[in-house]
Amino acid sequence: MKIHRTPRAPRAIGAALLLAATLAGGARAANAPSLAGATLEKTVLIARHGVRSPTRPPKELKAQTGRDWPAWPVPPGQLTPHGRAALAAMADALGARYRQLDLLPTAGCPAPGTIAIWADSADDRTRQSGAIMAATLAPRCGLAAHALPAGQADLFFNALGTGAATLDQARVTAALAHAIAQDRDHRPKPVQDALARLQALVAPDGCAQTHDLCLTEKLSLSWQHGAPHLKGGPVQAATIAENMMLAYAQGMGPQQVAWGAPDDATLLATILPAHLYAATLTRRLPAIAIPRASVLSRAIIDLLADRPVTLPDHSAIGPDARLVLFAGHDTTLDMLAATFGLDWAFADQPDPTAPDTTLAFERWRLKDGSRVVRAVILHQGLEQLRAARKPDLSGTGATTLPIGTCAGATLCPLGHLRPATIF
Asked: In CATH, what is the architecture of 11-59+76-165+287-416?
């Protein structure tokens, strides 16, 4: 399998490789054109929904782990009231950012057709997140988010789920077999530490029992209904770690987040590499991510080039749109990261695709008239998310990313932006 992209190290393998990648990106950026005197003309945003409850009820989680899990104020997988407030704070910050950059008007309402918001129809949480962002980006302007009918598959968010793209089973099997072998022989140290910490916390004697929870067990692969499924300790640990992060982001105390373990915020930084690792093995695997993102990645490029894009409901986003927002999932961010060769981490947030995290593709017109695309990741720190607090998206909440499929440039000539390909 060959992939046209800049090699990207999995986030879970540790800070040393991240530092090396950052320095390399900085070296490339040193020779890039400057944004001094440039004008921001358009942005395409892809946002994860707000804080949700775990997708399985506490009773089922207890059956899987042997531990009692906290009750949530909403049914499984739903956006919480706290999640709504935190997302509104993030949307407020996005509006402030793009007013400051003169993309949105500083007074009055945006002109009709200049903002478009499309949400994934798969879940209530994405549709509700789109509505919250519409109401907050341009308050009292009657802006609305749109989506397909509830539960209907949307090819923009998963081209595989609608048949718009297909997996090459042989290629995916080979890639996952290689990943499983690497995991067996060279499981990264941060992941080993995460699994050991979770094992000690959740089921200290789990690996000594034949049918108990063992988070260090090896990975295995099966295919179900034409889709690959990884099983094993890291996959189980990923779900446990994410559920604990969601409880912390919801504002729960140590007893509910980590069964009384102290320093639960520090604990999250130790265990979340397990979640990132599982995402790298599957959701960011190019053989899966690139076809899954094929429709959305083409739409992003077309929108930045002022070409009209037809949405799944047969409506269209025209060339006058200045801000386009897609309300999706962490899987949406992961698949685009793999497709465009992007990678990021945050000093104040251990989950790079935490709720409300937003990926921006910004089109700038330089002083010489040429146009470039800049990829920026926008986020709330963990404590900001927990407090439903507005981040500073003109400062630490915004990070410019090297674009792997544009030779690592931080300012990519408009015509050079393209998705990775597999052949």
From this structure: 3-Layer(aba) Sandwich (3.40)
